[in-house]
Amino acid sequence: MLTYEPDESLAHRLDPRAKLAVQIGFAATALAHTTPRALIAFSALTAVAMATARLSLRRTLVSYRLALVVLALAPLLAGVTVGPPWFDRSAAVASGLASYRVLLILLVSAAYVRSTPVRDSRAAIQRTIPGKPGQLLGVGVGLVFRFLPVLRGDLRTIREAMAARLGTERGVVDRASTIGMLGVARAFDRADRLSLALRARCFAWNPTLPALAFSRVDYPVLGLAVILAVSAFY
Amino acid sequence: MATDQHSVELVDDDVVKPFARAAVLAALMGAAVFVGSIPIPFSPIPISLGVIVVYLAGLYLGPYWGAFSLLLYLTAGAVGLPIFAERASGLGVLVGNSAGYLWSYPTAALLIGAVVHRLSEDGDPADLSRPVLVVTLLAALTVIYLLGAAWLGYVLELSTVKAIEIGVVPFIPGDLIKIAAVVAIVEAERIAT
User: Fold this and answer.
1) How far is the first Cα of chain B from the last one, in angstroms, to the nearest whole number?
2) Where is this protein primarily located (chain A) (predicted)?
3) Cα–Cα distances in Å, from B65 out to A20, A143, B33, B106, B158?
């Protein structure tokens, strides 16, 4: 599973905002170009991004397995035609190149995920998106992070309780609605207790954020992000 | 630490409650990818809870907080929580092959929430008649398919027909079952608005 791992790599020392900017720049230019030459350059850049985050290619590919199936299937399906010549090579190649750039975009974003703790991402969101929407998104990301294991436990309990009562023998609509209803009812119970706790603790629009500061290594990275974003138009 | 030296500006009570619900529902959407799915007969794709939560977000949180809840889900996944399908994460997923589906979720919740907001005085989806509810959910599903298949076709350079073959047809049986499940949830009236 792809997630943050503490390490001393160069990517771990970068400011999350610089890393986010590079990903956005890279995605913009990769979506705009699918020539083989551009893809070679993107591949090299992806390799650099992965190396700076010390990302394992094999493990990353495993965590994106669902996307890989679609990316591998798309060119094959694009080439198949009903009637002669049965397989259109040029359509398959065009789709293959397009699929490959999506894979590169995923790998670059994996480098960010491995090198950035959620706390830093939260601070980056709250500092970059202005006003109350930014505050709510930032705090919200923190809460999702906190409640994810709790709700996983809730859902697992619901499913085990259903299985113990032979719920697995019931119809699929019945099972899906029971899990959905109990899941949301429990989640809302938790949310209402959370909102009481937030009010009791003076939940404010202007909280104290973890420190974030650009260092000397961040400026070239930001420069790269700008170059990538501009190159999307050429 | 960047402490704000000005006076503390408290978040209003009428914001805290829906905000907490939206955040917890986004976490539930993420938790759904961990707990496995229900296999259905004659279909290779099992049912996951995910899209059910999208519908329920629109129905029970209303247009704005429902859409916010799903934007929060997308943001949390983008910054590295493993909550996208098959425990994937990262900003790349939000522009990758399944990006159209993901971005359609807030739009679908907005649409469903707007209908509930218009037809029910106190925002209770149980006030909607069954046909209206079914049509609303089908319209939301259409939005999800439309945006999902359109982006899939664009980003992988597939023709419209092929994008529908790969990105819509395999999911239809499961999605219809999910809509039936959501109708059952609303009619049971066990979730407090």
Assistant:
1) 39
2) membrane
3) 26, 15, 22, 10, 35
| pLDDT band at residue A171 under the 50/70/90 scheme | confident
- Per DSSP, the residues of B95-158 read TSTTHHHHHHHHHHHHHHHHHHHHH-TT--GGGS-HHHHHHHHHHHHHHHHHHHHHHHHHHTT-
Interface touch B24/A137, C-beta < 8 Å? no
- Show the domain range for B105: 16-188
Dihedral, CA atoms, A208, A214, A217, A218, nearest 10 degrees? 100
Report yes or no: B6 at the A interface, CB cutoff 8 Å. yes
Which two structure tokens, joined as six digits, stand for A152?
A: 């996983």
Amino acid at A207: P
- CB nearest A1 (choices: B13, B38, B87): B87
In this prediction, residue B2 carries a pLDDT of 56
Q: What is the CATH number of the domain that holds B81?
A: 1.10.1760.20
Q: Which amino acid is at A112?
A: Y
Output the six-digit token pair for B1: 């630490």
pLDDT tens-place string over residues A72-116:
988 998 888 877 788 888 889 999 999 999 999 999 999 999 999
Smallest CA–CA separation between B57 and chain A, in Å? 9
